[in-house]
Specification:
The complex is a heterodimer. By secondary structure, chain A is of the alpha/beta class. Chain A is built from 9 helices and 5 strands; from the N terminus they run H-E-E-E-H-E-H-E-H-H-H-H-H-H. Helix content of chain A is 31%, strand content 9%. The chains are: A alpha/beta, B alpha/beta.
Chain lengths: 286, 143
């Protein structure tokens, strides 16, 4: 049975048995090629659900709008880490949630009207093809490939001289429109009031200027330090193609190296910034 | 690089140790460069990385963060948290092209007036050799 058929069956059973009010999954988009998020409330709607390599969205973000309501959700492995993140931060309730985990071989870049051929950068170095948390598993668990160097892009960037890096980021940030699509798509960005929208104090000026853009992009990434689960929705939705994953992955790499922590692998480990060890040597202030 | 370059340093000092340490340097008549502009904060853990990034945006050449020695925090554990935070911010700012020598985290206790003077002097010297930051946004910059 295909993954799509298995998801449909699971969703139909859940909705028929009134186990959940809603199943969040994917359906075919209006261009006939790509996928879009779909909320099934009736058992009859379950047949609209699909899963294939065009299902790029991180649906975990939608759980934040369904707090306290019984919901089933279709998740890829990276999205399942987002669920652990939200559980860890007490944003959602596990007992209201039925997780349909999908074994994912990787997804492709979205392009309107044409089938995507190129796998996402993140998927090319993915080390998690089976969801880390699920109630129903769709597909056969695969053995995880050993990726020798999961951060080749970050290492390449680090190797460049400082002024080259500065020029690179200045150019990247100069394109930023501050549409905040990166924030809206991110399952980890859920503050009721974002620092970028505070008027007093005005941390990030309204003006779309290089300095303001830099503060926004630096702090957006840093607020996700030790929290980014690597779905790279931010980079997917960026209308001007800023390499946001290069920022997130740098922090991911350093958090792993310094604190041996990976976000969202379980729902219990304390995040690196809410804990400490008295005698740890971090190479600063010593 | 202009020879008479005077770097602008924004110093975030914790109220309980480092600010008192700077005060000690003053009462003991220990000289230190006037390049530093001190901002007193309740604890080094109060210093959100946003404050540092914002200082750089507004044209600071260097940012000094100083707090109590580990184990001496007035709030028991604040500086342990800031240590972790800045350990990650250092390489991240460097990655963005802000040289490592422009941000400094130091532990200065209330009795260490001499250490405070030494920290500010050596930090200023380091910044003079680094030179001014290449691009300071023209609008909204510090006067």
């Amino acid at each position: 049975m295909s993954q799509t058929a298995q998801i449909r069956q699971a969703a139909r059973e859940l909705l028929q048995g009134k186990a959940v009010e809603c199943v969040i999954g994917y359906e075919r988009g209006t261009d006939g090629v790509n996928a879009r998020p779909f909320f099934a409330y009736e058992a009859a709607e379950a047949d609209r659900l699909i899963f294939d390599q065009t299902c790029t969205h991180d649906l975990a973000k939608y759980l934040l709008n369904r707090k306290g309501k019984s919901t089933a959700i279709v998740v890829k492995p990276c999205d399942s880490r987002a669920i652990n993140l939200l559980l860890n931060e007490s944003q959602i309730q596990r007992d209201k949630l039925h997780i349909i985990g999908v074994v994912c071989p990787g997804v492709v870049e979205r392009r309107w009207g044409t089938p995507g051929a190129k796998q996402l950068n993140a998927c090319q170095v993915c080390q998690q093809h089976t969801p880390v948390v699920y109630d129903t598993l769709v597909g056969q668990p695969v053995s995880e490939p050993a990726v020798a160097d999961p951060y080749p892009d970050v290492a390449g960037m680090e190797a460049k001289p400082a002024d080259e890096r500065r020029t690179f980021w200045e150019e990247q940030f100069s394109r930023c429109l501050r549409c905040y699509a990166c924030r809206q798509a991110c399952p980890g960005c859920y503050c009721p009031e974002c620092f970028a929208e505070r008027l007093d104090p005005l941390w990030v000026g309204i003006r779309i200027a290089p300095g303001e853009n830099e503060v926004w992009n630096t702090m957006r990434a840093f607020h996700l330090a030790g929290r980014c689960i690597g779905c790279y929705q931010c980079e997917q939705v960026c209308p001007v193609n800023i390499r946001l994953s290069l920022l997130n992955r740098k922090l991911e790499k350093d958090v792993l190296g310094m604190f041996h922590f990976q976000a969202g692998m379980d729902a219990e480990s304390p995040p690196p910034f809410s804990t400490y060890q008295k005698d740890e040597k971090l190479g600063i202030g010593e | 690089m202009a020879i008479d370059f005077e770097p602008r340093i924004v110093g975030f000092l914790c109220n309980w140790c480092s600010y008192a340490g700077a005060d000690m340097a003053g009462t003991a008549r220990i000289c230190y460069p006037s390049n530093i502009r001190v901002i007193r904060v309740p604890c080094s853990a109060r210093i959100d990385p946003l404050l540092v990034v914002k200082a750089f945006q507004l044209g600071a050449d260097g940012v000094l963060v100083a707090g109590c020695h580990p184990g001496d925090c007035h709030y028991t554990e604040g500086n342990y948290y800031s240590r972790r935070r800045f350990a990650l911010l250092y390489p991240f700012l460097e990655y963005l092209g802000i040289e490592k020598g422009r941000l400094r985290l130091e532990w200065v206790s209330a009795s260490e007036g001499r250490k405070f003077s030494h920290v500010v002097s050596s930090f200023t010297e380091g910044l003079v050799s680094l030179g001014p930051r290449e691009k300071v946004p023209a609008e909204g910059a510090l006067p």
